[in-house]
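Incident log, structure service

09:12 report received: a user says their structure output differs between two submissions of the same chain.
09:20 pulled the input from the user's history:
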Amino acid sequence: MEKRIYRPLLGCIADDFTGASDLANNLVRAGMRTIQSIGVPEDSQTLNTDAIVISLKSRTISSYEAIKQSLQAYEWLKAQGVEQFYFKYCSTFDSTPQGNIGPVTEALMDAIYGKCKGFTIVCPAFPEAKRTIFNGHLFVGNELLSESGMRNHPLTPMTDANLVRVMQAQTHRIVGLVNYASVRAGPTEIRARFHALQNEGITIAVVDVTCNQDLESIASAIADIPLVTAGSGLAIGLPNNWRIHGLLDLNESADILPPASGYQAVISGSCSQASNAQVLDFCQRGLPTFAIDPLADVSQVNMAQQAIAWAKTHLKNGPILIYATTQPDNLKSIQQKLGAIHASELVEKILTEIAMGLVEVGVRQLVIAGGETSGAIVQALGIKQMIIGPQIDPGVPWMSAISPCSKDKVIHLALKSGNFGSIDFFTKSFTQLSNLYHD
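09:34 re-ran on a clean worker, output below:
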């Protein structure tokens, strides 16, 4: 069937760069041609794609600035004529008691519906990545969010797993729950629960999810809701809403990327449990690694220059790893000496300088671990837009882009959320990319 329209159907606003690629990955897997924009595009030209994901770096900035940037993204997407808006946050609901998920959700609802009107959902679940919701409580694997490694996150420690309570603390609107029994009963019952909550004055509903079938039911139930807020998991079911109306074909070539070339490198700034395990796996394989010590950099040791010089002697032998990833106790010690915010900004600055140096010497396949790290590096490389390719692990695809630093040659990027990926993710990524062109 020939596609009947030539404008984007879904407009997405993501609060960090790894989360944006996570969402775009799921949309591509479901057959939607998807473009990821770095920040709000500078022009108003309609893009020839099914979905647009605007990547913001708004998760940990002030609520005022997060709202401002998100509304700018909304206005640009609105001008594109999209049919539905999607505010994407992390599957572990990363935020502080003040926001930014609640304030941004409220601002988008006010813009779309009017003050105190409308309805939306909260659904960070992603079962493939072991993020589920039961009775409004978010689980990471078999642990409550508040008992997982997220309780030690350096910027957004999550100490409460009750999403209704967490979200209610961040918004003036009333938050309710669509529990598992309603979700399991299917789309009709979910919609009935939505109406019941609205009759009670509730305009935001946390929705339980334990498996992909639940996500598909929820996706069907929200087909006519202008704004949804969620992690990336919900995107798996959304494309079918347009497909059943003949507005979207199954695009078999949605994840095609150009061939890869150049040197291979990993930069890890995440201190999550998963990233620590991935760094250890890379080290145990005997592959070249370089550890960043922010305290040494403060002592007038230029860690970025040292790392780039070291990389030049190892890149020709295969993938290298440069990392600031460290265990919680050491991270806490660094934060106590430098201050949490200064430590984070310093590491970000060092890793960004390293990334630019690596690309300038020929790295064209780059894996980046950590949302804040990914955002800083992509912005520093001057990348404006990324094409989404095949999935490496749930939530993480390969992407291609052009950077001024790459002398107009294609760079392949994988932006990994700290908590995502198998233990061998760093090495597996390059193997998969190589196999794409040799199968």
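09:41 both user submissions now match this output. Likely a transient worker issue. Closing.
09:42 reviewer note: The mean pLDDT is 91. Residues 261 and 364 are 6 Å apart (CA to CA).
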